[in-house]
Every structure is written in C-alpha cells, then in structure tokens.
Amino acid sequence: MPSPTQRVGNYGEFIACYYLRRNNYKILKRNYHSRFGEVDIIAKINSEIIFIEVKTRKNNYYGYGVESVSKKKLKKIILAGQNYIIKNKLNFVSFRVEVIDIVLLKKSYRLRHYKDVELR
C-alpha cells in the first residue's frame, strides 16, 4: 500500500500525463528505473525525447517543487535517460529534461512547466 507521500506523487504524475497529452506529448514510459536513478515520465514530442521530473506538493510552505531538483538529481535523470535511449536503440536522438511543478489546491491544482532544464 502506497504511503500518503507516494499517493500525492502518483496523483501528480497522473495530472502531469494528462497535461502533457493535451499538449501533444506522447507518453513513452512512466517511472523508468535504471541503476543510475529514476525518471518519472519519458515522453516524445516531434522527434525529441523528454525526460520529465514531476514534483507535487500540497502547499508551498517549503518552496516550490522545482527548487528541490538539485544538480545531483538532474545528473541522475540524464544518466537514467541516456540508459533508456541506449536500451531502446534510439541512437542519434536529441533529448532534454523538463520539470513539472504541481501544487494541489482544495478543489484543483496549479501546474508550472519548466522546459529545457539545465545543470547550473
């Protein structure tokens, strides 16, 4: 049985997938695990592969979810994503990392989509 935190995270990923599909992204894989780490959502738009980290929170008391995506976490996402590309023989494909930040409100949610996130 998932913990309350896992249920919030799963719900956020569900919202993110709904949003992405409405914006012409094709969902290729959810919760991809490799020895390097995990990617919440792997999607494709046009000919580009997108590795998406979803951060879902019930409030912003501790800052925005995107602020918790560290340089170390981005490196893990990139390595896990490159592992996905190799395993699926998607050589010579371009990719990028995006973050979707979701705050759950009483009867709705607020979603922010950060495209082309880079290591700083």
How many domains, as an integer? 1
Largest sheet features: 5 strands, mixed
Distance between the termini: 37 Å
Number of strands: 5
Strand order of the largest sheet: 1-2-3-4-5
Individual helix count? 2
CATH topology label: Trna Endonuclease, Chain: A, domain 1
| Alpha-carbon Rg, integer | 14 Å
Q: Which CATH C-level class is it?
A: Alpha Beta
Which stretches are poorly predicted, pLDDT < 50 over at least 5 residues? none
Write the layout of secondary structure elements.
Layout: H1 4-22, E1 26-34, E2 37-45, E3 48-57, H2 71-87, E4 95-104, E5 109-117
Parallel strand pairs: 3-4
Antiparallel strand pairs: 1-2, 2-3, 4-5
Overall description:
This protein has about 120 residues and is α+β, with helices and mostly antiparallel strands. It has one domain: Trna Endonuclease, Chain: A, domain 1 (3-Layer(aba) Sandwich), CATH 3.40.1350. Helices cover about 30% and strands about 40% of the residues. Strands 1-2-3-4-5 form a 5-stranded mixed sheet. It is globular. The model has no long low-confidence stretch (mean pLDDT about 90).
How would you describe this structure in keywords?
single chain; 120 residues; alpha+beta; Trna Endonuclease, Chain: A, domain 1; 5-stranded mixed sheet
In short:
This protein has two helices and five strands.
